[in-house]
Amino acid sequence: MVPGVSFVGAADGRPEGRAPFLEAWPDARWYASAEELLAREDLDFADICAPPSLHVPLARAALARGLHVLCEKPLALEPSGVAALGRLARERDRALVTVHNWKHAPAVAEVTRLLREGAVGTVRRCRWETRRTQPAVAAGEKGNWRVDPAQSGGGVLVDHGWHAAYVLREWLGGRPQALSATLEIRKHHEFPLEDTAEVRLDWGGAQAEIFLTWAAESRGNSAVLEGDRGSIALDGGRVTLAADGAAARVREMPSIAEGSHHADWFGGVAREFLREVREPGARGENLEAAALCADILALAQDSSRRGGEALPVAPR
Prior knowledge:
By secondary structure, the chain is an alpha/beta fold. It has helices at residues 18-24, 34-40, 55-64, 79-92, 106-116, 149-152, 156-172, 266-278, 285-305; strands spanning 9-11, 29-31, 45-48, 68-71, 96-98, 123-131, 178-184, 196-202, 207-213, 220-227, 230-235, 238-243, 249-252, 311-312. The radius of gyration is 20 Å and the shape is globular.
């Protein structure tokens, strides 16, 4: 529960969701469509947690009604979709926030803190890895939208690459200058999309790498950052700092590879969203991060189609 916030209704075309929702929120109302909910309820905001292909039309409908919008990633499957929603949010003077929950994981936030304190000096190299043995199952679905290109917009790159992109932005700042990428199917040939993605980024003085796979032998997340004064390693929930020739310092926190819903990270998301709702001057930072994520994903797909060709990332 978030103080001052209540859920008054939910919409889902799948009737099996009705009973669990009303059990959790007995005073709320259930609708068979988002259109019906938007037409009948007096709302302040909409929380969109549908498959990616529905994010833009649902967010557009909510913003058009003058609602603030909190949306699961990816905000849009194309950079043009992010730009169009951003324009509409500004026209309506409403907050538009994507759920960037991984940056609120304690271990990721600890790495961010160390970097902002200058613990390793100027970062020269960063590598992020997300390893899974298979795609996550979509809750309540007979099928799995994650492996349906029409609904997901892509495979492991879209599912996990958006997270990696905004975390790297937190750590390295700004935008990369260029990238190249390779998308391939290593294991799950039954799905018509990639199960492994490698993205290489020139981040203006730092070289960054993103490796994502649904074809690993075991589940895990890790990152390594090398600076001119030392390094930071993140392995699950263990953060190791080795800098200035001193003995390594280790902090143990909950693993970022455990589970898939991460409800304990949502407090930071809620605070970020409510700040943008209540403080118009705070709006825009999350949207800039979303725009970068969309740019990186679209360029990575294009680069892979071109055989891994390096492509420039346009400045904003």
